[in-house]
Amino acid sequence: MVDVSVIIPVYNSAQWLQETLESLLVQRFTGKWEVSIYNDSSTDNSMDIIKSYKDKFISNGIGYVIGSDESTSKPKGVGYTRNKAISQSSGDYLCLQDSVSAIFTTVCINIELNVILLLQDDLMLENRILLQYQQADDHTLVGSRFIREPTDSTIRYTKWANTLNSKQLYTQAFTSFGPTLIIPTWFMSRRLFNKYGPFDETGQGTPEDLILFYNLIRGRERGEGVELKRVDEPLIVYRYHINNTTLSINEETIWELRVKALEEHVLSKWKYFTIWNAGKQGRRLYRTISEENKLKVKSFCDVDSKKIDKGHYTYEESKEKEKPKVPIVHFTKATPPFIICIKWELTGGEFENNLLSLNLIEGIDYYNFS
């Protein structure tokens, strides 16, 4: 019986793979565990490095399972590769560890750029498996805080992910930052994965982690006992590299998934709501939501006197003969609940102070979307 399987998808990861594997060898976990690596048609010497570590892991009492797709030189993507690594493993719990190349991305995009390219060579700190195993059960996705390298990269994103409280793991699940537990820190039972997975295998351009994350949120909404939890200390070093600004997962794809989840889990339960931001992002949300939810929009609210003085937003794209007009009011005149389409910490504290002045409760009176 294997307690934990560390899941590593690989594609042309030779530059970082050795360091990733070395970080596993210092784990303090004393249970029975294994490493399950699946190589997705790498054309570099990743496979040679993978094989070279087998004896080292076995001699340390750690299982070492290798899989590889050599039938084609074209990689099938991170969703496929993670699924293969999971299917060949046997642990009761799955610890996701990334060692991926430019073709593999996770959903922490739209941070400083509209789309960015992430290369990952994440390293485990020595207590990761031990502490997450202690927190895990059959129904819980466990994440952790992380150390960002370089320390001056994605500062807003890193602060956001590392400071969310237990309630915000759910209430902030619809923001542009992606899953509130970042996928390189995911630790879950095989039972949980089998029920809400597998990862989407569509391939490049698909945010497979966000899709699975929303499946888990959906399970919680259905009363199936799904929980999100974070170990409140750093358990991985999460490296960030910008190689390119053209890639892979289009921001529009992320937007559509977020809006669909917001409508399903939040707007479907509200009789009416206000969109906080009469600017570009707020209007875009209004245009994207269903016709049923458009009718629930009581107003837009803002602080911009020019927008407020205009009095309303006209939905010109409507097919109705008389175009819908949505009032624009000052935030102090608006009626909660709110969907907030303003990015935090970009207004010198003005927005945060305005929100605080209303004495609202997150998850009841408002949800963040931007």
TrEMBL record:
The record ties this protein, via InterPro entries, to: Glyco_trans_2-like (IPR001173), Nucleotide-diphossugar_trans (IPR029044)
Q: What highest taxon heads this organism's lineage?
A: Eukaryota
Instruction: Write out the GO MF terms.
Output: hexosyltransferase activity
List each copy of the Glycosyltransferase 2-like domain by range: 5-99
- Please identify the protein, giving its name as recorded: Glycosyltransferase 2-like domain-containing protein
Species, as recorded? Amphimedon queenslandica
